[in-house]
């Protein structure tokens, strides 16, 4: 039976890679719904190619434009808009698999809806798990949803862990690898002047702008430590970060007997996406075979928490528990947006996140409302700090 997909965030970088893999296997996958935020023209092209039953955009005006173009081309895709439509296509009986590839907190509601509807979820949207890890994992567990990590590190760990949960007792540590991003060796004092263009130029991966900046600050690795904690149930002190500039080893699992299992591959998201799409089978992803003789050298070093304060802030938020991770994520989203629109400097991102975490009291994350309130409070606080403290820039 073909898998029927809802692809949340189809116009993004993960969306592109997913559709590339899907197009290679028309006998295995069909597309039920595609969603975009503002990029209506790209969504039109994708709808013409994949003929989904539904397409979702952010607002009514874009929906009208997209619907007009699709009708003119004879395409029968129904065009919807707004956050509720994202939830509807995620829990619909029309799909069995949801690829969660919206960036940021906007992905939480539809991803959670997919978990509650017991779907097979391919999770790229790490922010959803960072915000509401316990609630999300409980929803998936209680409703029989299958969670398959797409983030390359987590997909690697998933591949290196024993299949049966009963055997996880032999796992001593998870080792998350990190490239170190574009500023791994740059003089720390000069980081204050880097531009959004420099920050978005990742040495190994081509990604959306927000995750590219997160990689440059290493907040991305911090979010991934939190993501790994929830996905694999290990405490923060059993999740190590290791700098590995070549991005060939995508992560490792260390066992009690001294064995360390690693997953290797070229840095191309189509590998973890194809793995999760076809799991437990293996299919062609279009990724070139790994040529280790040509790469020749794999190197490793410890992370530098002084150069990358965001990594330490994320680990602190995980240790604090409660809504601290949600507040960290929200403050980071606001600060990264301000950096990308040149309202604050690069090093101010960590300063804003730190100041927000210090300003807001932590509390239990017992319900989704607790999480959403913390998210909103952190966004307000971060925005007013950015507005009123130009000295941060
Ligand atoms: P991107 O910016 O390229 O794409 C984001 C997608 O989300 C787009 O389709 C956009 O239309 C949609 N979107 C943005 N804001 C939205 C909103 N408010 N409502 C609805 N839709 C919205 O991002 P990306 O690089 O593809 O990353 C997507 C997610 O995958 C992120 O959570 C990122 O951390 C994660 N991820 C990405 C990569 C990668 O290589 N790009 C790797 C690992 C994890
Ligand atoms: Mg990753």
From TrEMBL:
GO terms of biological process kind: isopentenyl diphosphate biosynthetic process, methylerythritol 4-phosphate pathway involved in terpenoid biosynthetic process
Residues where Mn(2+) binds: 151, 153, 224
SUPFAM superfamilies named in the record: 1-deoxy-D-xylulose-5-phosphate reductoisomerase, C-terminal domain, Glyceraldehyde-3-phosphate dehydrogenase-like, C-terminal domain, NAD(P)-binding Rossmann-fold domains
Binding site for 1-deoxy-D-xylulose 5-phosphate: 126, 152-153, 179, 202, 215, 220-221, 224
Keyword Coiled coil included in the entry's annotation: no
Ranges where the 1-deoxy-D-xylulose 5-phosphate reductoisomerase C-terminal domain occurs: 147-232
Gene Ontology molecular functions: 1-deoxy-D-xylulose-5-phosphate reductoisomerase activity; isomerase activity; manganese ion binding; NADPH binding
UniProt-listed Enzyme Commission number(s): 1.1.1.267
Binding site for NADPH: 11-14, 38-39, 125, 127, 208
Enzyme class: oxidoreductase
Family: Belongs to the DXR family.
NCBIfam families registered for this protein in UniProt: Dxr, PRK05447.1-1, PRK12464.1
The protein's name: 1-deoxy-D-xylulose 5-phosphate reductoisomerase
Taxonomic lineage from the root: Bacteria, Pseudomonadati, Pseudomonadota, Betaproteobacteria, Burkholderiales
């Amino acid at each position: 039976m073909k898998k029927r997909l809802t692809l949340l965030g189809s116009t993004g970088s993960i969306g592109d890679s997913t559709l590339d893999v899907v197009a290679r296997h028309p006998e295995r996958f069909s597309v039920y719904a595609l969603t975009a935020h503002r990029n209506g023209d790209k969504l039109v092209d994708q709808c013409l190619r994949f003929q989904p039953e539904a397409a979702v955009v952010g607002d009514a005006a874009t929906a009208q434009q997209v619907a007009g173009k699709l009708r003119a081309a004879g395409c029968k895709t129904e065009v919807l808009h707004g956050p509720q439509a994202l939830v509807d296509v995620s829990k619909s009986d029309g799909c069995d698999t949801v690829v969660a590839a919206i960036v940021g907190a906007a992905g939480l509601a539809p991803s959670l809806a997919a978990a509650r509807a017991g779907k097979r979820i391919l999770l790229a949207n790490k922010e959803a798990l960072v915000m509401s890890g316990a609630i999300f994992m409980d929803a998936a567990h209680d409703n029989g949803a299958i969670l398959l990590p797409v983030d390359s590190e987590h997909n690697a760990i998933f591949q290196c862990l024993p299949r049966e949960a009963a055997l996880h007792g032999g796992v001593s540590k998870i080792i998350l690898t990190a490239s170190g991003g574009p500023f791994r060796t740059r003089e720390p004092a000069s980081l204050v002047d880097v531009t959004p263009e420099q920050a978005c130029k990742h040495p190994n991966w081509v990604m959306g702008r927000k995750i590219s900046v997160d990689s440059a600050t290493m907040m991305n690795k911090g979010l991934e430590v939190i993501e790994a904690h929830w996905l694999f149930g290990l405490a923060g002190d059993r999740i190590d970060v290791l700098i590995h500039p070549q991005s060939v080893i995508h992560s490792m699992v260390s066992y009690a007997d001294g064995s360390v299992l690693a997953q290797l591959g070229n840095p191309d998201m189509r590998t973890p996406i194809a793995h999760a799409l076809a799991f437990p089978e293996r299919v062609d992803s279009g990724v070139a075979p790994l040529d280790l003789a040509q790469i020749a050298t794999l190197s490793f070093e410890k992370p530098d928490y002084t150069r990358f304060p965001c990594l330490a802030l994320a680990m602190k938020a995980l240790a604090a528990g409660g809504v601290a991770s949600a507040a960290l994520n929200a403050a980071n989203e606001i600060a990264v947006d301000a950096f990308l629109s040149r309202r604050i400097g690069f090093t101010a991102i960590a300063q804003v996140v730190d100041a927000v975490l210090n300003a807001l009291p932590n509390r239990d994350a017992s319900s989704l409302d607790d999480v959403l309130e913390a998210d909103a409070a952190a966004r307000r606080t971060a925005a007013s700090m950015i507005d009123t403290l130009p000295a941060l820039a």
